[in-house]
Amino acid sequence: MARRSGVSVATVSRVFNTPEVVSQQTRQLVLGIAAEVGYLPNESARTLATKKSNMVGLVWDTDHRRPGWRHPFLQDILVALKSALSAHGLHLLMLAPDQSPGLDREQRFLRAVQRHNVDGVVIIDNGSRDPAVLALADATVPCVALDLRYTGPTCTYITSDNAGGGRLAAQHLIARGHRRIATITGPLPAYPAVERLDGFRTALAEAGLALADDDIVSGDWYLDSGRAAMRQLLTRDPRPTAVFAAGDEMAVGALRAAHEAGLRVPDDIAIIGFDDIEVAALIPPGLTTVAQDKTGIGTAAAEALLAMLPGTAAAPEPTALPTELIVRGST
């Protein structure tokens, strides 16, 4: 190809590896010939030459044993993340922990990062604070965590204003005239679950309302836990007139339990969720929810990682994206 284009082999290499140092005319010439002959650069050789893999490792520790592990909120974030990285020529690689015998648990993901020579890591975790995941935050590889307060020299996190969203939910229910209000939390002490509960509780207190211990039932973000939690809340006497579920899948489960108990939503009991997943607008009577910017979270994670990828930049400050109340028929 160098002979056909009339340039050196080194120039051809620069066109594919460091195109910014080659003139536009030369780039177009070499790329045109490459297209004619069907040439594709060898990614393995490129990695060896540039010491960059153009791969971003994804640690997705969301407890795959759950029947509903493909949580729609996480899927939406992943699509946005992949799209933003692809626009910069980066690919996502799902990382599994290295299971080599004798390897310390804390080193399992670090070893996987080293084996695959990834340029950076994105963490979507279940909030368990696994030592093998935590070790990534202390490593030198650029790292971005989603909804987890992981920080380090080259690690930052992206989240939503979870406390503010919890406040929005409480304020909306109070404005609707509700005074006996309960909540179904996410798995405590997961960071977003704690923040949403704190914001919700604060807004109730500001209105002179208390949240008793038995007004709080923990879920796990998934539908079945919301259904079970709502059944528990409905045994209270007097039962709550409104329930804030800290995740939409749990809110859908709560709606199902309310219907199974013969209750009308919102006439007998109001329900509000958090996330604004696609199904929230589709199920009757339409789920009122606190919307997160799912595309924004994925895009912000990619941008934070890209800012660190030269290998010398410090981690940017954590980012908390705003939330928005979406009012539908369930309240």
Automatic annotation (TrEMBL):
Alphabetized SUPFAM superfamilies for the sequence: lambda repressor-like DNA-binding domains (SSF47413), Periplasmic binding protein-like I (SSF53822)
Keyword Acyltransferase appears in the UniProt entry: no
CDD domains (UniProt xref): HTH_LacI, PBP1_LacI_sugar_binding-like
Annotated ranges, domain HTH lacI-type: 1-50
Keywords: DNA-binding, Transcription, Transcription regulation
Gene3D superfamilies hit by this protein: 3.40.50.2300, lambda repressor-like DNA-binding domains
Pfam families recorded: LacI (PF00356), Peripla_BP_3 (PF13377)
Coiled-coil regions listed in the entry: none
InterPro entries referenced in this protein's UniProt entry, alphabetically: HTH_LacI, LacI/GalR-like_sensor, Lambda_DNA-bd_dom_sf, Peripla_BP_I
Entry protein name: LacI family transcriptional regulator
Taxonomic source organism: Actinoplanes ianthinogenes
